[in-house]
Design a protein that fits this description.
This protein is an all-alpha fold. It is 66% helix and 0% strand.
Length: 101
């Protein structure tokens, strides 16, 4: 299975939404552990009605993190594509070498 990276196009789609609400289609679950301090911060934002759940607050914070580091994710995506191209070239070299024997 090919590892997917966040392409610039996907990043644009994520960040172009005007509002990220509970109406967004979110079908993937990500389980994570957080420190007590982070959990308290999430709970605090829920208690202030910033969001309805810790999960929703975490989602909002992830979006903000992606917005803040778009440049980094674009560089990662570009490098990942270059690495994938080199891997494919190496596979071809190995395949060609095997055919010479």
């Amino acid at each position: 299975m090919k590892k997917e990276t966040l392409s610039p196009e996907a990043m644009d789609r994520i960040l172009s939404k005007n509002q990220h609400s509970t109406n967004d289609i979110r079908k993937n679950v990500v389980t994570m552990r957080v420190t007590d301090e982070i959990n308290q911060a999430l709970e605090g934002l829920v208690s202030l009605s910033v969001a309805q759940s810790r999960s929703e607050v975490a989602y909002m914070l992830i979006i903000e993190g992606l917005k803040a580091r778009t440049d980094l994710f674009n560089q990662i995506s570009k490098r990942s594509e270059e690495i994938e191209k080199i891997k494919n070239e190496l596979k071809q070299v190995i395949s060609d070498f095997g055919q010479l024997k």
